[in-house]
Amino acid sequence: MSTTHSERLRELLEPLVASQGLDLEEIAVDSVGRKRVLRVVVDSDTGADLDRIADVSRALSAKLDESDAMGEGEYTLEVGTPGAERALTEHRHYVRATDRLVRFQLHEGGELVARILGVDEDGLDLEVPGVKGRKPTARRLAFGDIDKARVQVEFNRKDDSGDKPPKNTKHTKHSENTTEEEEA
Fold it and tell me: CB–CB of 124/94 below 8 Å?
């Protein structure tokens, strides 16, 4: 059984990313004109700041230079984080999105927008915002009921205390796609 180019790149790069304390979330090789672009998305439970992105970018560039994984032609390496409206596809993504507002597409059809309060092996404890002055309600959602899930960007979120920033400041701080480019 043959593996795809992205799978071979993942096998080569994932241990290096893990050694930097990060998770390899995504790899994509795209052609832009005559050049190729290798996009690598990394993340961790504590986020990935610019210094960590730069460190992993240099390490990946060196590893790619010593291998023939990208072939002979020129390519650009872009290393970044998942972004503010990331798709949730792995258990760890849901854990990292705790206290965030998420739009769920459900297998039964329909859509649900709710805040993740807790995550366990079977599913999620959610808070569904109240509509037209009603109080929020609690709901349990099994992973098996979820077709797709995506974090929602919130502007002007009110905290319960009224004067403290939201608990997830560390997540929103790192939510922009940050890219370090190196020519290989």
Answer: yes
pTM reported for the whole predicted model:
0.70
Residue owning tokens 């979330």: 25
d(CA 151, CA 93): 10
**Residue 114 to residues 38, 63, 138, 141: CA-CA distances in angstroms?**
34, 41, 9, 10
> What pLDDT score does 49 carry?
86
Q: Report in angstroms the alpha-carbon separations of 181 from 33, 102, 117, 166.
A: 17, 31, 36, 32
Distance CA 127, CA 99 (A): 9
Are the C-beta atoms of residues 59 and 20 closer than 8 Å to each other? yes
Element (H, E) at 174: none
Distance (Å, whole) CA 160 – CA 11:
45
Report whether 30 contacts 78 (CB < 8 A): no
User: Taking every pair of C-alpha atoms in the chain, what is the biggest distance, in angstroms?
Assistant: 62
Task: Give the integer Cα–Cα distance in Å for 94 and 122.
Answer: 12
Q: Summarize pLDDT for 133-145 with one digit per residue, the tens.
A: 889 999 999 999 9
Question: Within 13 Å, how many C-alpha atoms sit on residue 144's CB side?
Answer: 2
Mean pLDDT, rounded, of the chain:
83
